[in-house]
Write a structure and sequence with these properties.
Order of helices and strands: HEEEEEEEHEEEEEEEEEEE
Strand order of the largest sheet: 1-2-3-4-5-6-7-10-11-14-15-16
Radius of gyration: 49 Å
Shape: globular
Strand content: over 45%
Low-confidence stretches: 5-49, 339-375
Number of strands: 18
CATH architecture of the domain at 114-296: Beta Barrel
CATH topology of the domain at 114-296: Lipocalin
Structural class: mainly beta
Largest sheet: 12 strands, antiparallel, barrel
Number of helices: 2
Mean pLDDT: 77
Oligomer: single chain
Amino acid sequence: MRISAFTSSLLIVFAAATAHAQTGTPPPDAEALASGPSGPADAPTIDKPKADSTAVTVSAGGLFTSGNSRTIALTLNGAFDMRRGNNGFGASVLGNYGEAAPSPNDPMVTSAENVQGRIRYDRYFGDSVSIFLIGTGRYDRFQGLAFRLNLDPGVKYIFVKSAKTALWAEAGYDFQYDVRTEAGRRELDGDGNPTGVLLDPTRIDHSARVFAGFRRAFTEDVTFSTGLEYLQSFITTDLGDMNSRFNFNAVLAAKLFKGFSLGLGFNAAYDRLPIPGREQLDTTTTLSLIYGWAQTAEKPKKEEPKCPPCPEAKPGAAPADPKAPATPAAPETPAAPQTPDAAGTTTTTPDAAPATPPATPAPSGGDAATPQPQP
């Protein structure tokens, strides 16, 4: 019984294999155990790399008058900004110097002398939020500062950012450390005369800081930028209780040619508690020639995902085309039978040979079968 069942199984397998061989039907395609990308639409999406950028600006301006009064004023400003991925770096320097004489016979005396440098680092989280750290150093002869250090950590949020408009705000903390000059330690009365009181050689202040900035490109050739900073102290120093300070700047620039622009700038610094005998408000108006250079890394070209390579054909004989079965060869014509004549000799019948029997047609879709003569 088992031998009979095994024999039947072999016959079924053999019959199936024979049917595939006779009909020319290829075996079914193998199914993948895990599905893969079927085309470019199924390729995984890769985040676009952020464009890296570098920008440098340099500006210089001056003023010279002669005649009844003489004035010489120079200003120099430079800025560097760089973005690499989610990291931003910046640096700037600003210097002003001036001399003046109220009459032709008076000697020239220094009327302005200050230098300020600033560095900044931003760490971006997305396109709108960053945390930053700013370090600023300043020397100002007429404010009585041999050196002023400001450290400002904080957070920045960008409300609007486009090719023409940018609006952002910053909030954080300000640490200020002042080293005063000898002249800056002397307290002055309302007429500018020393009172004989000496202030401390150094001073430390802690404040909350907020800043708002705006930039607008009216055309490709005209841009305007401005910023307002407010610092509110929350401690008491030798100058008074809880000082307040404002810093404002604005620049209107018009492009001239090949990276050169003409800029009109205004800066204002207000200190509610200055060193006694000094003014609370300092302003500066400048007309400068600005040169700017910027470079943005080109975005990499989008590459279409490549389809998986086709499997190589295995060496072997090419299968016969099932649509074009081979034509069977005609069978040979049998020789005519020999008929004995009356004399008993054998002769060949002069009649024509019998017609060739038709061949059996090959089965549809399979290889040609061996032709069989009709009975």
